[in-house]
Amino acid sequence: MWEPYEGFWFQCAVRRDLTAKKINFMDSNYIQNMAMDFSIAQTTIAGNGQSQCPMPAAANCPAPNELNSHLMQLLGDDVVFLPCKQRQKGSRDQEWQKYTVERMKDPDYIRRLNSASSLAVSLGAPSGGLCSIDIDDDADVEPFLELNPAFRSTLMSRGHRGANIWVRIKGDYPGLAMLKRADGSEWGEWRATGGCTMINGQHPNGVWYSRAPEVKPLDLPFANIVWPENILLPWHESNDQESQTDEESDDQLVRRYGEPVFFAQNKAGVSYVKSVNEPYWAGLYAAEHVVLYEPDERKFYVYEHSNGLYVVRSENLIKQEISARMLEVSRESSELSGLEKMRSDRTLAAIIAQLRGIVERRNAFADRPKILHLQNCALRVVRILALREEFSPAFLSRNRSPIAYDPDAKCPRFLEELVLPGIGRENVLLLQKYVGQCLLGENLIQRFLILDGNAGCGKTQLANVIQALIGRENITQLRTNHLGDRFELYRFIGRTLLVGVDVDADFLSTKGASVIKGLVGGDWFDAEQKGGNGAFPLQGNFNVLMTSNNRLKIRLQGDIDAWKRRMLLIRYENHPPKNKIPNFSEKLIQEEGPGILNWAIEGLNLLMLDITLCGGIILNGDQKGVVDSLLAESDSLRSFLLKNLVQATGSDLTVNEIVQAYARYCPDMSWDPLPETQIHRQLPSLMLELFQTPKSNSIKRDGVSARGFRGVAFKGLEVVA
Questions:
Q1: I need a labelling partner for 524 at 20 to 30 A (CA). Which of 84, 106, 472, 660 fits?
Q2: Are 176 and 217 found together in one domain?
């Protein structure tokens, strides 16, 4: 953790000591050792000193290996896993080759797997055709991937050297076989029925097995695998490798979609191109691009290898690309020269229509893996780990941070000059965790964050830094007064962070403000596009950040518990700095952007640990209390009445007496009182609800009738604060 503050502490119950240890969450080996060897018994937030989430002692409840459980979910319930000992290859169960998926239904066996220090997979028939290609040397991995570019999007694991490429084979495939080069040297192994491959744990030489990309294995026929020319394949009698050529790839397209064009003959018997086979050209475009069509959004997304993002591509641009490809083919073959004249807009539109059906993928971005997509790499979030990986289309990313990852970068000015002077040490962790969640692009804890308090203390500068960290293109303005409008929600599609900066005190008092609870809480909405047809399903999984110089008043409508579950609040109560730095947020991003990124990544790791331990973010008493206070202030008249009035037969109170007492009460609570007109409007219904007394116009004071309420009195002689 960073030096300016003491961040996160834990107690190791297994070791039975109370020595506080700092966790380096960027060290995956350290974290994996911790997860295997220790049970975290208690979580303590700095400044609180109280356990927020007590866990069973390790002696009574050994902590499961979360990574094993994650991998079992990743590969599926038709896969047979094998428990292994640390630093040993393969299972020591003598009859493991006889295990079937029925074994995976045994609770005792599952417990063995969860607690195993290492894990392997039984391959081939027992696991639904799941196989692996074991490549011995690092130098041979990239050439094999160049022959099989689709394998960049499948599960790949590594041990001491080389790699295992995991595939799920459709149809027939050969059995376990060693693979050698023509000169007799070993290249690797085809692992199928009768074999197993390590997927997690520690290699005999001490390194940890890693997985990148850590995604589901691809499904494909065995015949689609392209092998290096110098490899002798045991399943070929001639041992001659016939590598897949472009013509063979084209043959596959023809088998699936038909010939690219249809010919006819003129009166002289000369063949000419009569028409275009639209499905073929749509299939060719799909084969040459990583592309998908989201039918609810009615958009094409094309994967860009340079940045790892799926980017919206207009239909008109795709038409031009297909037209250029057809022109290229027509110039390469005299037989197809007539294709050049067949590229009408009508034909291209028909090809686009075919392409929609071929690459349609509804809810494509809904269940993407937990990936931090950064400027120069991706970090996979696995429980409390952040593991570096290269870009992959399997990540289904359309949002990324523009900041490059540098694991050694730090951000002392950001912390010491912007964060700590404004909010103090006790709230730095809360801020760090939420910014880390914003970086992920999912609202795991289903809460929004408010930064409020004194003007000039850095709230806006901090919000600007956060927005620059997340990426401006991933953010849109939150406008509560428009949330009830017909087309407002469509603006949020493809965004991950909704921001309201320097909002007024009534920002959460508008009629549409209650929608925010659903926008962070996982609710489903219909997002309607202006000028479009129908509505698009939109799930409220957004992060939301608000800043204000005022304490916000919330339109509770009796739903105080729901607002409490959804809100986080950090209050700026310190004095503004004497010397302000112009454009400080831009300077911080320029000087310390990668360091701020690391700070946010650490925050996400801390948040993931909170969720693992307690199912949500851990808050101390003050952080809960400030939310309770804001909610009480938002319903301040009700809070006052409940705390200071009591039913009393024969007693009465005038409206003016209640108003004056309320006006004295609010400053004692550091609240801003309601305007008198609002008090007079709300008071009759509240008195009837809370004390079952209607308003009366005949309360006697000094012989004069006044408006008020019968059967109530103040508690004691003074108003209770």
A1: 472
A2: yes
